[in-house]
Design a protein that fits this description.
Shape: globular
Structural class: alpha/beta
Strand content: 15-25%
Bound molecules: beta-D-glucopyranose
Strand order of the largest sheet: 2-3-4-5-6-7-8-9
Radius of gyration: 19 Å
Largest sheet: 8 strands, parallel, barrel
Distance between the termini: 8 Å
CATH architecture: Alpha-Beta Barrel
CATH class: Alpha Beta
Order of helices and strands: EEHHHEHHEHHEHHEHEHEHEEEHE
């Protein structure tokens, strides 16, 4: 069986600043990693030193066959204190964008990927409505500095993860259990998306802009359909609604979420393969998420993240094949899916789980920082080159 992807379908890989750059001591995550009671496995430290090694990394992904690269800019570097701007940091990201162009790679810039400067987190972070204007101001500075080089943009990565993991499960900063805080974060993230969208669009450059969302295949026992729909609206539907009219919507899916009769998470189903992340091996989640996003947003879609944390690279190939088959079925049904970005280019800092889950197509030696492409990297790079998936 062969899946031919439409001409112009974009193949890329994704990363984020805090997970790869190293030394991001001035954001809320660094502080959280070092808090004794945060439950974090280890601090991010030098990460994979992408801050200095980006030229080699971008060349590597191009040589593998990918022609797009999604990465995030680090707010705490660009605005280290309230309204103090680092020209050096802005220049750094301008050089990074120029490097992508040099290698003929389309740069996809995420303006916020989970991390918030410390000075702003200390003032309530995403619970304080004042962050909406501050985020827009940061986006304006950034786009004025390098918007002309951006190929595609994402305002905020997974607003729903920042709110749920930060304010309900307490796995992410600030490690709270605060339902009111959770609701405020959602509200401010949506407002920040809308405001920054207009600000970025008004700046230099002319590129597709949207937001990216963490999505899942939701399951609940018979009779609990209403609860399931309500929960899904809270996690996904409200953000899909907020994205209406955007240039595109970014689908990010990894697994499945099972709920009980009360709508509370019940964990994996016995017998289903379990991954290092603690959730189920469930590549079907991507197709379900694409279909939901298509129905709720009505705008073009990109898969901006999909992947698997595993030390078994053959399992990564199996997972990605099954996920791409789902994308193929969506395309065959006429859904407007325009690209696929694999999470992640390299093994990197997996937030509270540290360096244990290995999501990379490329391995990184934690002592020497040496990069070694895994078989999956060559395999997916070849699919990207051919724009075609051929089953063995
Ligand atoms: C996030 C990434 C993360 C990945 C794998 C996504 O939710 O955007 O930062 O590393 O999932 O867990």
């Amino acid at each position: 069986m062969t899946i031919d992807f439409p001409p112009g379908f974009v193949w890329g890989t994704s990363t984020a600043s805090h997970q790869t750059e190293g030394g991001n001591w001035n954001n809320d995550w660094w502080e959280f990693e070092h808090r004794a009671d945060s439950g974090c496995r280890e601090p991010s430290g030098d990460a994979v030193d992408h801050f200095h090694r980006y030229p080699d990394d971008i060349r590597m992904l191009r040589d593998l066959g990918f022609r797009a690269y999604r990465f995030s800019i680090e707010w705490s570097r660009i605005e280290p204190e309230d309204n103090e701007w680092s020209r050096a940091a802005l220049d750094h990201y301008r050089r990074m964008l120029a490097c992508c162009h040099e290698f003929d790679v389309t740069p996809v810039v995420t303006f916020h990927h989970f991390t918030t400067p410390r000075w702003l987190a200390a003032r309530g972070g995403w619970t304080d409505p004042a962050i909406v204007d501050r985020f827009a101001r940061f986006c304006e500075r950034s786009v004025n500095a390098f918007g002309d080089l951006i190929g595609m943009g994402c305002t905020i990565n997974e607003p729903n993860v920042v709110s749920v993991l930060g304010y309900i499960s307490s796995d992410f900063p600030p490690g709270a259990r605060d339902f009111e805080g959770y609701a405020k974060v959602n509200e401010n993230m949506i407002a920040a998306h809308r405001k920054s969208y207009d600000v970025i669009k008004a700046g230099p450059g002319d590129f597709p802009l949207g937001l990216t969302l963490s999505m899942s295949d939701w399951w609940a026992p018979e009779g609990a359909e209403d609860r399931l729909e309500r929960t899904r609206f809270g996690h996904e539907g409200q953000f899909c609604a907020a994205a209406k009219g955007d240039d595109y919507f970014g689908v990010q899916a990894y697994s499945r979420t099972r709920l009980d009769e009360q709508g509370m998470p019940t964990g994996p189903e016995p017998g289903v393969e379990l991954l290092d992340m603690g959730y189920e091996y469930w590549p079907q989640g991507l197709e379900v998420s694409i279909r939901y996003a298509a129905e709720k947003t009505g705008i073009p879609l990109y898969v901006t993240e999909n992947g698997i944390g595993t030390t078994d690279d053959a399992q990564r190939i199996r997972y990605t094949t099954e996920a791409l088959e789902g994308v193929g079925r969506c395309l065959a049904d006429g859904l407007d899916v325009r690209g696929y970005f694999h999470w992640s280019l390299m093994d990197n800092f997996e937030w509270n789980q540290g360096y244990v889950p290995q999501f990379g197509l490329v391995a990184v030696d934690r002592e020497t920082q040496a990069r070694t492409a895994k078989p999956s990297a060559y395999w997916l790079g070849e699919i990207a080159r051919q724009n075609k998936l051929t089953q063995p």
